[in-house]
Amino acid sequence: MVEEAEGESTSGNGGMVPGTEPEDGLDSIEAKNFSATEYLNKLFPNEESLSSLDDFLVKLRRRIRKVNDEILVAVRQQSQTGSRAKEDLGQAQHGIEDLSGRITEIKAKAEQSETKVQEICRDIKKLDYAKRHLTNTITAFRRLSMLMSAIQNLQEVADKRDYRETANLLEAVNQLASHFESFNQIPKVCELRGQLSAIKSGLRATIFDDFIYATAKEDIPPETLDKLSHACRVVEAIDAHVKDELVSRICNKEMSAYQQIFSTNEAASAKLEKTDRRYAWMKKLLTRKQAFWDVFPKTWEVSSLLCTTFCKITKAHLSETLDSQRDSPDVASLLKALHWTLDFEKELNLMAGGGEISLWEAGGEAEEEGETVDESELTEAELIKRKYQAMRKEKEGEPASAAAPSPSKEGAFSGSISSCFEAHLKCYVELEEKSLLETVDGLVNEETWEAEGGENNVISSSVQVFLHIKKSLKRCSLLTKGQTLFDLSSSFKVVLQAYAARLISRLPRSAAGKSAVGTVATTTSSDWHVKFDDNEEKVVCLIINTAEYCYETVDSLGQSIAKILDKPFSNQVEMSEVEDDFSGVITTALSTLVLGLETRVDQALGDMCKVSWAALDLVGDQSEYVNVFSSVLADSIPRLGSLLDQNNFRFMCDKFTASFIPRYRASIFKLRALSDSGTQQLLLDAQAIRTLLLDLPSLGNHSLPPSYSRTVQLEMSKAENLLKVLLSPADAILSNFLALMPVTAAKEMPQILELKGLSKQEQQEVLGDMSRRGLLDEGEGERQSREAAGRRIPDINWGDKFGQLKGLKGKMNMGKIKDAQAKGSQALKRFNLKFNKG
User: Fold this and answer.
1) Per-residue pLDDT tens over the stretch 193-206
2) What is the pLDDT of residues 764-799, one digit of tens each?
């Protein structure tokens, strides 16, 4: 079939039923995943479609012919392209060979050119080297001649002590001599160097003599000062170590007189009292010979070096003096000497800072920004300086209050002398501590125990204590910021702890004379009672607020001390012990308040125990003891709420409820036999007490977290569940007990049975049942039964009594019971209304 179709052309029709397929339908045959079976089944799905088979074969033959033509054309083109590529490759190879030959020829010509150039330049190089060497030789001879002449002239002017010309010539000679450093093997150069060294040695000796001679004179003529000024240039030209030696000799010469004047055998205290004379002598030396010190170049810093030498000698003298009186120090003399020393160091720092202020005009420490200085704390010298500065500012047209540019807090001379006092200031710290402790005692003794006023609502002594500590801190920081200030911070802790102890000692004590800490309110005795009036209650609240104010202020005090202290000590400041002490004061005072409140409500619990609950037949309004409890809370809680902040009020309420509710529950066990009506009345009273306790936050005008309400509900439910168990019939008391009471309350079962009024046999049955259930030990049940029998009131047939009461529920007039319950509910509403108004 393929052979028959070769003479025909086709446009292709391959993917559809013949007759409906587009002309390019045969293109799908060229697909990579072409399947002939699927293609034919698609074209001829049934026998009827075979009618177009002939047309499809015609198209297929045309497509085959077209493909054969395309293949033939491609083969011919490929044949022609291969022959042309061979020709191009041959031409390229021939071109490469030709280019390689030309490159070789150019390289050979370049080598020939280089050889010719080298031959031409060889003679030129020789002439250039000769010229260069000849020029260097001529220059060296000229410089040698100049050096010889300069050394000769230098010798002449040096003999005349004409230091102006000597300085100029010596600088020139040094510059010329530097060119002959590589000619040391030449005898003439060595000879000239020897002559130069001899001249320098002579100049050094004569200049030293001139300076030493000038230091001995009071008034130095201007021409001599000018001569010495040029001599300094000569010294710089000689060598750097000569300059250092000259300055050292001058300083030692001046300090030798100082040591002779102040090296006496006087007492240590007398030497300290004369410390200001040392500094006055030094100031006089600097001002008296100001013209002489100006002779030296500023870069030499002769005045600073002289002051440094003076500071070292003075420090050694003062250290020796302080060591000699270590056992019996004179604090007043020591502090005076230290103040004088610090003032002198500040003046030296001003001078070293390059300012134009003379030593006589140097002021004291600049005031801190925004802070005023108490003139009573300044020395007489500082007051005079401040007055002089104000006068000078007025003359210059500046306001007297304008702040002078303060020098940097740390300078080159800071601590140069005063550091020797650091190890001897322990007596100063002890004196400050003693003074602060006496101040605390005086302030507490004079305290009126009334609120100072303001937001903190604290007593005045607390503010005064921190004010005195701040003044002490400022005084010490002006003296030192090292070990002594750190030791003083420890003294501050001692003082504050002593103040905390005085606050605790002011708190009321219990009837047994004990502190409130560790004292627990019980139902067995009254030794824990803490009785105080409204005024004392206010004092306790003031102590709480004061302790809290101190607690907060101690932290800021510690931060201030850490900022002032030097780095080795700034990280060692720890005030947590003091904070713990004031926190203890708060806890003790709040415990005292709670015990005082417990003492007042203890009367209500006593009244509850006095009621004959067994004789009560009808449930009515709340009992009288609840009214007493309500009046105590209505009187105390609003007052306490106004005096305490929210956190302390919350603590007090939490602690009061945690103490009162267990005592209230324990008081129920102290009652004698209960009737059902009495138990119902107690249950009504318990609900009223719970309402009162839940209303404490609103009564104190504070909002407490929900946890307080949950705690009150949980604790009061224990007492209410106890009363509900007591209301149970005898045959259901154990099941109700297990349903309402925790398992840990099993030991209370004998007391519950006794309150219920069961007979001895009934009690033993219940306790035996509990023992069989594993709630009581076998011996424990019998022991508790015997103890309960010993405590029982006269035998009453409580079972019959309970049966009668039980029968009454069906027989007696239920209207009376409902009326009684309604009265009880109305009484509770009236009580709540009255309580909220109060």
Assistant:
1) 888 888 888 888 88
2) 888 888 888 887 764 444 444 444 444 333 333 323
The pair of structure tokens assigned to 467 is: 């004010």
* Residue 459 contacts residue 401 (beta carbons within 8 Å): no
**What token pair was written down for 236?**
């710089």
Candidates 583, 602, 715, 599; CA nearest to 651 is 583
CA distance 109 to 396: 91
The whole-number average pLDDT for the span 227-249 is 86
Per-residue b or e along 171-208, where b marks 16 or more CB atoms closer than 10 Å to that residue's CB = ebbeebbeebeeeeeeeebeebbebbeebbeebbebbb
Q: 74: which 2 tokens?
A: 């491609």
Contacts of 390 (CB under 8 A, 6+ apart): 400
pLDDT recorded at residue 225: 86
**Per the structure block, which two tokens stand in for 787?**
């103890």
Q: 553, 561, 410, 414: which is closest to 476 by C-alpha?
A: 561
Q: Tokens at residue 137, please?
A: 């030789």
Please give the Cα distance from 771 to 746 (Å, whole number).
Answer: 10
Residue 672 phi, psi (nearest 5): -85, -160
- Cα separation, 404 vs 421, whole angstroms: 29
DSSP 268-314: HHHHHHTHHHHHHHHHHHHHHTHHHHTTS-GGG-HHHHHHHHHHHHH
Q: How far is Cα 692 from Cα 565, in angstroms, rounded to an integer?
A: 55
- The kind and range of the H/E element at 456 are none
Number of neighbouring beta carbons within 10 Å of residue 504: 18
Q: Nearest 5°: phi and psi at 121?
A: -85, -10
As a whole number of angstroms, the distance between CA 523 and CA 515 comes to 19
Cα torsion 470, 476, 478, 481: sign = negative
Distance of CA 631 to the CA centre of its chain: 49
Average pLDDT for residues 43-64, to the nearest whole number? 84
- Cβ neighbours of 558 (radius 10 Å): 19
Question: 749-756 and 733-740 helices cross at what angle (nearest 10)?
Answer: 130
Q: Which two tokens stand for residue 449?
A: 């125990």
Report how far residue 436's alpha carbon sits from residue 327's, in angstroms, rounded to the nearest whole number: 23
Q: Are 289 and 281 in contact (CB under 8 A)?
A: no
Tokens, residue 705:
């977290």
Provide the whole-model pTM. 0.62
User: Among residues 337, 313, 495, 315, which one has the least CA distance to residue 425?
Assistant: 337
User: Which DSSP category does 48 fall into?
Assistant: G
Cα–Cα dist 667/608, whole Å: 8
Predicted local confidence at residue 452, as pLDDT: 66
Asked if 52 and 18 touch (Cβ cutoff 8 Å), the reply is yes
Length of the chain: 838
In angstroms, the CA 620 to CA 828 distance is 10
Residue with tokens 């002032």: 564
| 658-682 per-position pLDDT tens digit | 989 998 888 888 887 788 888 899 9
d(CA 409, CA 415): 11
Backbone dihedral angles phi then psi of residue 451, each to the nearest 5 degrees: -65, 135
Contact 458, 546 (CB under 8 A): yes
Q: CB within 8 A of 107, min separation 6: which ones?
A: none
637 within 8 A of 700, measured Cβ to Cβ: yes
Residue of 289, 299, 346, 337 lying closest to 317 (CA atoms)? 337
Phi, psi at residue 185, to the nearest 5°?
-80, -10
Buried/exposed code over 243-268 (b: 16+ C-beta within 10 A; e: otherwise): beebbeebbeebbeebeeebeeeeeb
Beta strands in 62-204 (DSSP E): none
Are 407 and 349 a contacting pair, CB within 8 Å?
yes
Q: Note whether 522 and 541 are within 8 A (CB).
A: no
